[in-house]
């Protein structure tokens, strides 16, 4: 992602992010409030398009932009939003509120990046400072698991929301070790060839983003939830089959207008890489995704217990996915 991505969106979303963080109105019946725990960038187009298509089918949706995954999760716990976007395994286990994941959006494609002048490999990060997205985020989980796998411990973990923000900090030299998404990894390689090293990540196939809500909300709003999940699956399938569709979605629904028309080529390339990696959840996740997540998040120390003993129903409500697959069929 080049300089025209999240940074250019910051001004337009900051008021919403700050307002949402400080005082989000209570969610009202008949309108689905979705808490988005990040500033939307090109990696959000599939989700944003699914939301627009759900609106076309009669679902009233309000998107609340919050610049932190923790804030999005807190909005669900506090009843200020209905549906959250993230991977709230730690929250589900510890919050005491019956929150359930009901559809996977995508699996993780994160890239640990270090300044080549300072570090060459994982062992060099022993005792050093790193920067990740947020406490409890997938970026933190990846970095913690890699530390465990490589027998090291970090000196300090800083929380810096926004993959592009971390990319810019790496370019400026204010941080020397972090983790970014695929778009910002590509941007670093293009903008500063040879300056950074992407460290290897082994055997990570866990949830990056998913939809979650309270059990009561899912029970009482099944019709609207079903429409949203169906559209999420359909957009994932269409983009996976033809990544250029992401550009068509962006232009049809006027998504991320601040990026300008010049972003279309990058969007197409990003979703081509994402589709080739199979990162979009064309069947919504479910039991198989939960098993992968249990293994990953316990190994990373974000949830407790033996992965084989954790119960899917304590974290997921798979009935929504089952209903969507009965309508759309399985890919």
UniProtKB/TrEMBL annotation:
Family: Belongs to the bacterial solute-binding protein SsuA/TauA family.
Pfam families noted in UniProt: NMT1
Keywords: Signal
Gene3D superfamilies: Periplasmic binding protein-like II (3.40.190.10)
Name assigned to this protein: ABC transporter substrate-binding protein
Coiled coil: none
Segment forming the signal sequence: 1-23
Subcellular compartments: Periplasm
Entry keyword Amino-acid biosynthesis: no
Domain SsuA/THI5-like: 55-245
Organism: Borborobacter arsenicus
Gene Ontology terms: cellular component: periplasmic space
């Amino acid at each position: 992602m080049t300089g025209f991505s999240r940074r250019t969106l910051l001004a337009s979303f900051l008021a919403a992010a700050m307002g949402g963080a400080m005082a989000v109105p209570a969610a009202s019946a008949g309108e689905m409030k979705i808490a988005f725990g990040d500033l939307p960038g090109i990696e959000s187009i599939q989700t944003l398009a699914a939301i627009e298509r759900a609106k076309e089918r009669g679902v009233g949706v309000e998107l609340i932009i919050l610049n932190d995954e923790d804030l999005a999760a807190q909005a669900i716990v506090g009843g200020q939003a209905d549906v959250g976007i993230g991977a709230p395994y730690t929250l589900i286990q510890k919050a005491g509120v019956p929150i359930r994941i009901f559809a996977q959006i995508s699996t993780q494609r994160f890239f640990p990046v270090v300044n080549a002048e300072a570090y060459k490999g994982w062992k060099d990060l022993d005792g050093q400072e790193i920067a990740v997205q947020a406490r409890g985020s997938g970026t933190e989980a990846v970095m913690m698991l890699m530390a465990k796998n490589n027998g090291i411990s970090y000196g300090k973990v800083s929380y810096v929301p926004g993959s592009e923000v971390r990319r810019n900090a790496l370019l400026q030299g204010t941080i020397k070790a972090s983790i970014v998404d695929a778009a910002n990894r590509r941007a670093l390689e293009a903008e500063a060839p040879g300056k950074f090293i992407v460290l290897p990540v082994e055997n990570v196939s866990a949830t990056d983003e998913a939809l979650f809500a309270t059990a009561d909300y899912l029970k009482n709003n099944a019709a609207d939830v079903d429409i949203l999940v169906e559209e999420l699956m359909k957009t994932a399938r269409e983009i996976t089959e033809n990544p250029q569709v992401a550009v068509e979605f962006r232009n049809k629904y006027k998504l991320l207008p601040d990026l300008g028309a010049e972003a279309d080529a990058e969007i197409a390339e990003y979703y081509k890489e994402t589709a080739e990696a199979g990162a979009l959840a064309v069947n919504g996740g479910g039991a198989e995704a939960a098993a992968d997540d249990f293994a990953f998040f316990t190994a990373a120390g974000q949830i407790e217990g033996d992965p084989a003993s954790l119960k899917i129903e304590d974290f997921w409500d798979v009935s929504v996915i089952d209903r969507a697959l009965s309508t759309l069929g399985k890919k």
